[in-house]
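Why does residue order matter? Because the sequence determines the fold. Keep that principle in mind as you read this record.
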Amino acid sequence: MIVAPKIRGFICTTAHPDGCAKHVSEQVSIVRSRGPIADGPRKVLVIGSSTGYGLASRIAAAFGSGAATIGVFFEKPGEPDKCGTAGWYNSAAFEKEALAAGLYAKSFNGDAFSDEMKAEVVAAIKADLGQVDCVIYSLASPRRTHPKTGEVFKSVLKPIGESYTNKNLNTTTGVVDDVTIQPAEGDDVANTVAVMGGEDWEMWIDALLSENLIAPGTQTLAYSYIGPDITWPIYKNGTIGKAKEDLERVQRALDAKLAPLGGKAWVSVNKALVTQASSAIPVVPLYISLLYKVMKAQGTHEDCIEQMDRLFRERLTSPQPDEVGRIRLDDWEMDAKVQQPVIENWAKVDTENLKELADFDGYQKSFLKLFGFGLEGVDYDADTDTGVKVPSIA
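Structure:
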């Protein structure tokens, strides 16, 4: 079938298999162009491996340090007459690239929060790898069913204490206007922490430790974001920020559990980027558009793959943690020479001057690339096979 982008709000409901494969191939080429990663991990588990930072982590580990990788995700397979999700096509493309390079790659599609999925992955590691030496936790989900109680939690993106009004970008129309978000109420904070906090990360590490599947010196990472003051009411100081605080609580707990093995847990604070998750957060798309304009002009812009390549290539061997022990891959974003013009332009930006002050075109292109659209060398007028299989799952 011929596949075209169909955008509804902050989601594209279609994905192009060939475009996703080209996007993955481009990321692989970037890592390969930088040469082998010295002392990189060799057996890597990525929980949440199909898009964004999780996918880039898997690519950087595999094609930078030759790692065997296991990926866990929850995606919809394609059918001959119906699109699958971008994450499904990304994972199919990754496995094909890995197999062509002679690398072990195995994927699991299902509920990463469940005990059943953990048991399947534990069995695969035990049978195929023996142990892992790096565990990436990069899940982004709107809901979670607790594996012990069966309770279903739903996360929300809300400020805490009072409503929040600020500028917002309609990424479909290019209109800049104000948005008001009502504050969290009831169990909103607790539910968001239950979904996006660190409990499940700890459950994964506990499951691996209980079967002696964590190698000496293993490092595990979860990803976070802090950002500038203008995003804090909806992010750092909002419900999602409370979940990220819980990640840091769990990071300290995992440090203690891994210490006897000489291992280490990290929270890595990454740069603001166009991802399926960030597109859903009010205010953030406008900030990202302004940020891209400045960082591209200064030559410091990185996408997911450049961030994760820098993580594996530099920061895991020389972490340079901040005052509370986090890895800071957002260091270039938060540099004053970047933030000052971004904040100045935030005060001035409106619908009329959006394209002058912000990289709105770049934002839209990055968004479409997430779903396999707008990549050079792909014939979008041709029939494409939407029933692509992930080799290790097929």
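The two ends are 21 Å apart (CA to CA).
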